[in-house]
């Protein structure tokens, strides 16, 4: 069985929910305390064994390759000032043996189209897809958990979690039957159903392992509203050819595509931050007392 060594990051979206902050800077580069969302996603992929990071980019996304590129001037300045700790941190953003590939998505034609853009690089190998604005705090990381499941079953896998019935209209919702602890086999998938029409409350989040057959399926999907190709439709077609699994990952997901989810992530990660965690907790206690 082939190992998962390629991870695709669709990052061409406009990030309209965070305007004006995302007018000139990608939403994927919004920081959680002192590290951008994109770096958390890359670290998760690398921890799962990925050695090729494939970014599907668009306009105003230059800061993403800049972040993973070497900064000679900055590193020289830090070295001259003796700031070795932060210098080591910068040099470790992209570990040795890991490479970045950037593919331009000329039009924002849906998540399925973004994944399809990766076909020339992925080829006939299984691959991971990670959406950076879904920040998952797991131990081991969520994608590593999914890679371990793939090693056992060899099937495409969707990361899922339970959501409130009132929230089903915001997600792809799966109809699935349990085959093992936290592992289910898909019988169907519905994009953003109303609560009354939802087959379950198991929502697909931004973590996927897909076999290369998904490319054939996406190439034959009928575009929907605005000419967009939905990954959900491609997965529904994939089920006609091979088994597709859903995995209920262990960990906490923060929807950093929403302002509330983003702020929750910042607060909770700041509370655990080795440099400011203690002082930040003291501040929160004082703040709580002043409010009550």
Automatic annotation (TrEMBL):
Keyword terms of this UniProt record: Nucleotidyltransferase, Transferase
Enzymatic reactions: alpha-D-glucose 1-phosphate + UTP + H(+) = UDP-alpha-D-glucose + diphosphate
Classification via Gene3D superfamilies: Spore Coat Polysaccharide Biosynthesis Protein SpsA, Chain A (3.90.550.10)
InterPro entries from the UniProt entry: GalU_uridylyltTrfase_bac/arc, NTP_transferase_dom, Nucleotide-diphossugar_trans
Catalytic EC class: transferase
EC number: 2.7.7.9
Protein name: UTP--glucose-1-phosphate uridylyltransferase
Organism of derivation: Methyloradius palustris
Gene name as annotated: galU
